[in-house]
Amino acid sequence: MPTHQPRRTPGPRGERFAVLDPTTGEAFDEAPDQRPDELDAIVERAHDAWRDWRADPAARTTALFAAADAVEAAGADLAPLLTREQGKPLAESYAEIARAAARLRYFAELDPVPEPIADGRPVRSEIRWRPLGPVAAIVPWNFPLQLASAKFAPALAAGNTMVLKPSPFTPLATRLLGSVLSAALPQNVLTIVTGREPLGARLASHPGIRHVTFTGSIATGRAVAEGAAASLARVTLELGGNDAAILLEDVEVERIADRLFWAAFRNCGQVCMAVKRVYAPARLYSQVVEALAERAKTVVVGPGLDPGSQLGPVSNAPQLARVERCTAQALADGARAAAGGHRLEGPGYFFAPTILADVPSGSPVVTEEQFGPVLPVLPYGRLDEAVEAANDTGFGLGGSVWGTDLDRAEAVAGRLECGTAWINHHAELSLAQPFAGIKDSGVGVAGGPWGLYGNLRPFVVHRPEEA
Ligand code: NAD
């Protein structure tokens, strides 16, 4: 969890808090610091709006398609703001927006159909899917718009209304997205609230909320589940990861190096399912370290708004502190920085893309989710050792296997204990697939039809064949 939150500044428009630009570390705007007690009226309005929203699936579909168009049309306003508060290169902000629009269209077209129960009894039983009511969504700062849409697209398509809280580190683009969507959606169907804790804690435990869908760290996920237990609301948790990539003996290092590098460093490594540990056969170890280090040394790090930047700054000060702590500990544990290993001089939260070799397997950069532009590479002797090391963690989000013999790679991938495994790439997700971490990485299923049904409840009608 963050060790501190943005500064609070009382002002003429009510309490507000400062939003910092990670490129400079300076405040550039502010957002409303809404009080937890404001949620009572907000949830009540979401409940009132639910009556009409749930009643007309055809109107919902039309509204969600209009919402997708509105998001795309606002791209030129949303993208620079997202980059400013989050730090990512502008092209990646545009990609988030495109993904949000695509997700709205995907779920707008999904229709939960009534299902007959054929069990041989002389009764016509049927499952009809019904929405849950007002849903709460709480999201982190690494993909603010994409993750917000991953919450509201299935929830609204299912006929629920939603109150959504972005991270206080990245509230502005989500607020703008909320006002863009208000042109397409009826009032109070989607409400964005911003503020510092305990706003999220109050939202998660609010008695008027029927489903809490949360993306963030494992520690906060536990707190959210405890809060939701008070009203026995359904909980979906998408939590942290520490994904391993296992390279096989027959891997062609130069052929996969770019893909592997970007699977670890995209969005400055601040991706729940980034590659966070590489296991390389001892014979290829130096070659793998050098290939990744070469890329880490030449990648262009700079302000996200500069068109040439391939990596921006780390997104916020607590996250930078975490990356610095894990890296310093690894170096103290005997690791060697084949590239980077330090913060970049100058303003802002820039950290040199870092490849760590010779890291002890118990060092926090291997065992914890460091969530930054740092990648430890570990050698292995027997393949079984690599699979065991990959699985020897409380995390269980994703994993990947890299090699030339695809059948063999697939067999190894099948031994990974996680929700999604890839061969020769990592973290590519289709909108149509289920997304579910195991162990400490999550509870419930998002994505695809499973994401829609996660926002619905079965309502069963039994009717005899004869009166
Ligand atoms: P975080 O857990 O600190 O915060 C997430 C959200 O929870 C924020 O909106 C925050 O304000 C809010 N929050 C904080 N305390 C709360 C409380 N007591 N009750 C309710 N809400 C509270 O996470 P973060 O640092 O913003 O994000 C990084 C984490 O998110 C990483 O662990 C990453 O792996 C995870 N993540 C997971 C996925 C996934 O799909 N599995 C996707 C993206 C990020």
UniProtKB/TrEMBL annotation:
Q: Name one GO molecular function term.
A: oxidoreductase activity, acting on the aldehyde or oxo group of donors, NAD or NADP as acceptor
Q: Which UniProt keywords apply?
A: Oxidoreductase
Pfam families documented for this protein: Aldedh
SUPFAM superfamilies named in the record: ALDH-like
Per UniProt, residues of the Aldehyde dehydrogenase domain are 15-452
Which InterPro entries does the UniProt record give?
Ald_DH/histidinol_DH (IPR016161), Ald_DH_C (IPR016163), Ald_DH_CS_CYS (IPR016160), Ald_DH_CS_GLU (IPR029510), Ald_DH_N (IPR016162), Aldehyde_DH_dom (IPR015590), LUC3-like (IPR044086)
Give the transmembrane region(s). Answer: none
Q: Any idea which residues are catalytic in this one?
A: E238
Q: Which PANTHER family match?
A: ALDEHYDE DEHYDROGENASE-RELATED
- What does the sequence similarity comment in the record state about its family? Belongs to the aldehyde dehydrogenase family.
Which protein are we looking at?
Answer: Aldehyde dehydrogenase
